[in-house]
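Chapter summary example: a protein plus 2-acetamido-2-deoxy-beta-D-glucopyranose.
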Amino acid sequence: MGIIDHKSKKEEEQYPMISKPLRFILLQKGSYVLSSLFFVFGFSVGLFLCLQLKAVHMSTTTTQRQPLWSTLLFNHTTTMDIKQELQLKTLQHNMSDQELFTKVSSLSSPTSSSSSWLGRRHNNDGKMVVKVAFMFMTGGRLPLAGLWEKFFEGHEGFYSIYVHTNPSFQDSFPETSIFYSRRIPSQPVYWGTSSMVDAEKRLLANALLDESNQRFVLLSDSCIPLYNFTTIYDYLTGTNLSFIGSFDDPRKSGRGRYNHKMYPQINITHWRKGSQWFETTRELALHIIADTVYYRVFDEHCKPPCYMDEHYIPTLVHMLHGEMSANRTLTWVDWSKAGPHPGRFIWPDITDEFLNRIRFKEECVYYGRGGENVTTSKCFLFARKFTAETLEPLLRISPIVLGFGP
Ligand SMILES: *[C@@H]1O[C@H](CO)[C@@H](O)[C@H](O)[C@H]1NC(C)=O
Ligand SMILES: *[C@@H]1O[C@H](CO)[C@@H](O)[C@H](O)[C@H]1NC(C)=O
Ligand SMILES: *[C@@H]1O[C@H](CO)[C@@H](O)[C@H](O)[C@H]1NC(C)=O
Ligand SMILES: *[C@@H]1O[C@H](CO)[C@@H](O)[C@H](O)[C@H]1NC(C)=O
Ligand SMILES: *[C@@H]1O[C@H](CO)[C@@H](O)[C@H](O)[C@H]1NC(C)=O
Ligand SMILES: *[C@@H]1O[C@H](CO)[C@@H](O)[C@H](O)[C@H]1NC(C)=O
Ligand SMILES: *[C@@H]1O[C@H](CO)[C@@H](O)[C@H](O)[C@H]1NC(C)=O
């Protein structure tokens, strides 16, 4: 101890501009032992507080990792308020994408992901609640917000909402709305460019900052839920697999978009195509944020008619983490009409028969967390492209058909 003190003292003498700490004033008075004790005590208190503050910061939503003093000082509700405040702060951060991705990558390494938290819906034992992050990507408004409000009603604490929208767009959600203040720092998105993938990664990274988010759903402004919240929540948290649409399309619209300059990092046999609307686990989301190698190859060589948002994540996951994905998307869309764009639905389309045809359309295999697999007709949990005018009929029939609402 004495040696350290001496060293510090020497340093201080070399830098006389630094104001003298209290301990040196004590030293001058000759009570050397007292000052050492004082220093040890002060240092320990400082270190302890510092670590505790860090723990509070890290555990924005984990009750599990709550530091001792906060449980002693605050009631549960009080800590909830603090957490919400911290979360608001993270939404309003001004980190660049690079800073954000670096921070997220350091949160927890992909291999030590906390998958053991999955599926713990109820918070009876004070353990962390698993949340599903619903990430909305839109150019401006969310015309179907009213339907989502009904969908989420009564399930507070089991979901988080993130909105990426054009930075020039002015929000108009009332304080009572679930979308109020849920916007992340956004950048303009240009169709068919890498800015689309950047926005997806930005949403993922912001949602990853909250460690209780364990599943991540990407949604557009024209998406609707096809079931009630509990059904969708249980479906997502009941499996270890991500749902990333992925297939090898030999046609011009598939392999035809591969650029041979991507070789050798990406071989044409690795090339995959899939819907941009993905659903992923926390572990795979961290892997997606961590990739820079393949991102660069795509950014450089995947230009229209190659669309990065349809190929980058499916190809990346296929090459590096194929076993983590069910290789199918959960978001239904109508490709039955020929053409470059899928079908859009308008007011007269909304009927019980139509919705039930999407809800129970085909058969697919669902791999449960326990290792069991079941064949289910629930292949899609969400559907797009629903125009603003469908809101009224959807709200009207959702209690009977979709199972939520008044
Ligand atoms: C904790 O909550 C109880 C009731 O839930 C309340 O009576 C008490 O004052 C609260 N304590 C603090 C420190 O807020
Ligand atoms: C980020 O915000 C902090 C305060 O919130 C401010 O001090 C800092 O200058 C900002 N940085 C940038 C790059 O805007
Ligand atoms: C959601 O739907 C399922 C199946 O229709 C039903 O069993 C369940 O009770 C519903 N949940 C709620 C909260 O209404
Ligand atoms: C791509 O990979 C396949 C097998 O994975 C291999 O047979 C083929 O030669 C590779 N293509 C090139 C251009 O190297
Ligand atoms: C998905 O595809 C990968 C290869 O990319 C494969 O390893 C994996 O088994 C597939 N998943 C399922 C559930 O079939
Ligand atoms: C899913 O993950 C849990 C927790 O990591 C693990 O115990 C379980 O064996 C996994 N299930 C399957 C089918 O891999
Ligand atoms: C489903 O699980 C059974 C064993 O429980 C296995 O024999 C079968 O191959 C699995 N099916 C699929 C599609 O993985």
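Key point: Residues 263, 267, 269 surround 2-acetamido-2-deoxy-beta-D-glucopyranose (ligand 4) (CB under 6 Å).
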